[in-house]
Design brief:
It is a single chain. This protein is of the alpha+beta class and 461 residues long. The chain has 3 domains: 146 residues, Beta-Lactamase (2-Layer Sandwich); 86 residues, Orthogonal Bundle (Helix Hairpins), CATH 1.10.287.130; 149 residues, Heat Shock Protein 90 (2-Layer Sandwich), CATH 3.30.565.10. The protein is 54% helix and 16% strand. It contains 9 helices and 12 strands. The strands form 3 sheets. It has a 5-stranded antiparallel beta sheet. The protein has a 5-stranded mixed beta sheet with strand order 7-9-10-12-11, with helices on one face. Helix 1 runs antiparallel to helix 3, helix 5 runs parallel beside helix 9 and helix 7 runs antiparallel to helix 9. The protein is elongated and about 155 Å long.
Length: 461
């Protein structure tokens, strides 16, 4: 059943998020520049005020109060604008001369010579009455009078208004617009790639496992995701093919022993003259056949368990050398009985994280295969060693070996060489070993031992 279409709000969300983040970032930068420009302008004003104050101090030095008042009057009368502010006052800060009629309330500290710059509202400004501000400093004259020198901040405030209300606002608006457009383009690109993945998923759900995602040449995160999904689909297709092959092989390989089992039982039941010994022989053979069938199913279950990855939850610190030594001691009597010399080379502990039972079963399968195929008088060596951050386990024999053409199919389930058909087995041993190696993040290799076969397993240490 086809699911109902979902509302697609990804483009809108990405656009809004991108626009907001972009706008917030650029706003922070613009406000920083705005504050820095105002700070530089205010510092320039302070330097000019300091220069005017020192210049006026020099002009008033050595004069009487009347003469100082005349100098201040001439200075203010000569000004064409209202930028500079002067006020000559008595020690009690009463007006004597200047274009500022009342002493600023913020400039009344007890030690005027040590005061810095102060700001205050300028009530009698002809251009912006009630809104203008002034900034200046106080000079303590030697005769006891006070002189205030400052600047009208009207021009400064108008500059700040133009910056904040004009350039800054326009820049912010353009920035937000660019952020929204960029977010729209980005979100449409992301949405397009996601739509490709969704369409592919729908096609796969409908049964088309051959579909694959296109991988671009940019090598970005979406291309990496596409490659990973394609590898996952390849693996799923391989597993599906393996399941079909396993089903066919199980039906083919188990049909014969089960048919023989049934025929043997039917023949025994039909023989009215059979004694207890005959029935016992039939039952013993039946038990042997049943154990062989159960061994096949147990191997299939173990392979399925290893390939599922579930045993990783049971991983614990283990010594691979110790596991190999236990398997060696188990198979040493069988090797002696078969006339084969079995050796172990695993002295130092090799610590790994793994599932002890599956590792022991993988080693047992390798030893069992070697002992079965090596003729009497042959040699089998089991070795464990560390190679950097990897642990290496190898089983080497001097038997007939394995044809190079067959090594590619050796790990397929129920696959056996023609010359091995007469030996007991199900063709699942190497499949199980490969599944255990992959479970532990490793690999298995089949190499020519000249003569014989070398099976090497490397897992993460």
């Amino acid at each position: 059943m086809k699911r109902p279409p979902r509302r697609r709000g990804l483009i809108l969300r990405y656009t809004l998020i991108h626009g907001l983040l972009f706008g917030a970032l650029v706003s922070a930068v613009l406000f920083f520049l705005y504050d820095a420009m105002l700070g530089l302008e205010k510092a320039r004003l302070d330097r000019e005020i300091e220069q005017e104050a020192e210049l006026m101090r020099g002009r008033l030095a050595g004069h009487t109060v009347t003469e100082m008042a005349a100098i201040v009057h001439r200075t203010t009368d000569a000004m064409t604008g209202h930028t500079s502010i002067y006020m000559l006052a008595t020690a009690r800060r009463d007006y004597v001369a200047g274009n500022l009629r009342s002493w600023p309330a913020t400039a009344t500290a007890e030690r005027p010579a040590e005061r810095g710059m102060v700001e205050f509202p300028l009530a009698s400004d002809p251009i912006e009455p009630g809104r203008a501000r002034a900034r200046g400093r106080t000079l303590a004259l030697p005769e006891g009078e006070n002189l205030f020198v400052g600047r009208n901040l009207g021009e400064f405030d108008r500059l700040r208004g133009r910056l904040f209300g004009g350039a800054l606002a326009a820049s912010l608006a353009v920035t937000v617009l660019l952020g929204v457009v960029g977010g729209l383009l980005l979100s449409r690109s992301v949405s397009g790639r996601l739509n490709e993945i969704n369409h592919l998923s729908e096609a796969i759900l409908e049964g088309d496992l051959r579909r694959r995602l296109p991988v671009g040449a940019r090598g970005d995160e979406f291309d990496e995701l596409a490659e990973n999904l394609n590898r996952m689909l390849d693996r799923i297709e391989q597993l599906m093919a393996a399941m079909r092959e396993v089903s066919d092989n199980v039906a083919h390989d188990l049909r014969s022993p089960i048919s023989r089992l049934r025929s043997r039982i039917e023949v025994a039941l039909m023989d009215e003259h059979a004694d207890s010994q005959a029935y016992r022989a039939v039952l013993e053979q039946t038990v042997a056949d049943t154990e062989a069938i159960l061994a096949v199913f147990n191997s299939l279950l173990t392979i399925a368990e290893a390939e599922s990855g579930a045993p990783r939850e049971r991983f614990a610190e283990s010594d691979l050398s110790e596991i190999a030594r236990e398997s060696f001691e188990t198979y040493e009597p069988a090797a002696e009985e078969a006339g084969i010399e079995l050796n172990l080379r695993a002295a130092a502990p090799v610590r790994i994280r793994g599932e002890r039972r599956l590792l022991a079963q993988a080693i047992a399968n390798l030893l069992d295969n070697a002992i079965k195929h090596v003729p009497r008088g042959g040699h089998v060596e089991l070795s464990v060693e560390r190679d950097g951050d990897r642990a290496r386990l190898a089983v080497v024999d001097d038997g007939p070996g394995m044809d190079e053409a067959f090594r590619e199919r050796a790990f397929d389930r129920f696959t056996r060489m023609e010359k091995s058909r007469t030996t007991p087995g199900s063709g699942l041993g190497l499949s199980l070993v490969e599944a255990v190696a992959r479970l532990h993040g490793g690999e298995i290799r089949l190499e020519d031992a000249h003569p014989g076969l070398r099976v090497v397993i490397e897992v993460a240490g």
